[in-house]
Amino acid sequence: MQFMLTASSRGFSGELSQSLEPSELHQLLVGLREMHRTLQGSAELRTHGEADGATLTIDRLGRVKVDVTMVHYSDPVHRLQISFFSDQSCLPAFIQELEAAAASSGCS
Fold this sequence. Notes:
Layout: E1 2-9, E2 12-19, H1 22-38, E3 41-46, E4 53-58, E5 63-72, E6 78-87, H2 91-104
Antiparallel strand pairs: 1-2, 3-4, 4-5, 5-6
Helix pairs in contact: 1-2
């Protein structure tokens, strides 16, 4: 599945085109569903073991911290790291959108 990883926080932003294997999407969805169900833990998006991706971690207050790393590997290498907070109310819609994307791309 092809997707665009886009992140913006304060004065920083980045965008990176990626592809995601069905197993990588499945791993992300399992983690997100468990976070939503238990309101604890984390979920990780990693593409083919690369350094780029995102990690979502929920704390005991229900805050979801999103850490995004984008790496452009041509010389010179560029690395952008952005973090921001949301809350657990974002999880159901995010899970639903990922499930719909997985179904439409044949990854479900």
